Amino acid sequence: MANPLRPEVVRLYKNLLYLGREYPKGADYFRDRLRAAFAKNKCVQDPEQIKQMIARGEHVARELEALYYLRKYRAMKKRYYEE
Questions:
Q1: Is pLDDT above 70 for 7?
Q2: pTM
Q3: What DSSP string describes 22-81?
Q4: How many whole angstroms separate alpha carbon 40 and alpha carbon 43?
Q5: Residues 30-79: pLDDT tens digits?
Q6: Cα separations (Å) of 2 from 23, 42, 43, 83?
Q7: Cα–Cα distance for residue pair 2/50, rounded to 1 Å
Q8: How far apart are CA 42 and CA 13, in angstroms?
C-alpha cells in the first residue's frame, strides 16, 4: 500500500535539491548529504513521524532561502557602499 505522504516527501526532496544548487560548499556536497538524509529515513512508516520530518525539512528549506537572501543582500550592499 502506498503512503499518502509520499507526494509531500517527493516535493520536499525536489525543493531542497533545487535550493542546494547555490549551496556554499557546492551542489554535489549538498546533493550527497540530502540523498543520505532521505535514504537514512526511508524505512520510517509512522505517519506522525513522517509529518515531523517533513516539517523539519521545510524549516531547513526556509533557512536556506534566508541564507541565500542574506548573501545576495550583502553582495548588493558591498557594490554600493564602501566599508
A1: yes
A2: 0.83
A3: G-TT-HHHHHHHHHHHHHHTTT---HHHHHHHHHHHHHHHHHHHHHHHHHHHHHHHHHH-
A4: 8
A5: 999 999 999 999 999 999 999 999 999 999 999 999 999 998 898 888 88
A6: 33, 13, 13, 56
A7: 14
A8: 12
